[in-house]
Description:
Helix content: 55-70%
Radius of gyration: 22 Å
Strand order of the largest sheet: 1-2
Oligomer: single chain
Structural class: mainly alpha
Number of helices: 12
Number of strands: 2
Number of domains: 2
Shape: globular
Amino acid sequence: MGKSKTFGIHDAVLISNLRHFIEQIDACSVLIKKSISEPCHILLRASFESFLIGSYILQADQEQRGKAFHYFQFLEQIKLLDKLDNTTEMGKQHAAIIGKDDHIHSMPITSPSDAPTIKSNIMERINFSTYASIHAEYTAQKAAKPKTKMQWYMLFGGPTSIENMADVTGNSGLYEEFYRHTSGFVHGTKIMSKAIDEKGLNQIRLPFNAQFVCSFSLSLCFLMFRKYVESYCQDRMSDYINWYLSLRDGYLFVSRNDIIKFA
């Protein structure tokens, strides 16, 4: 496949990331058909993060960065198993948190019967020579910065945050104008701007931002698919260009004209 002689871990990560990206964009298309535009901001933010992940891994050191991403998947699985095990310190802390919640304090916390085997298998995979350099770097970083919540992209002198990743991959403008701007929709701090106007409370399923959702979705698709085609099948670039040209006029029309008007 493309630059890789064999299908490696980083390829599996990249293809999984692409699938996730497409799934979020597809969900937006389903919602827009029902005049539901506001929740699409959440899906588009997830799509943008997938775009950044793909951009960062494809930018350089693909195998190392892909393995780092996969390694952290193992760490998350171990963390979950430890949370469900009340004999571990993390499990005791998790149980205490659940116990303070009036809504779920009586919810039983059970660990899978084969949890020790699962954890042992994960640890065995982490200790494979495949992840030796990743494990060594992670261990060193944790020792140097014990209070820092490590992320896969931080290893080997990588970005310190999603914002930094956007800068490193040349997408700081998109981060500033879209990702930061839509934070309020995700965290519920901009709910009033669309819910209430001078006429009163707006109905749901009112496509205020339907055009933007369509336009930005296509923009991300153009960018994302081009990166993958360039990396995996450069000989199909002409097909990508033809696909882009088939959509360009409609994309520009939706992006530049106010099609949906509200009285």
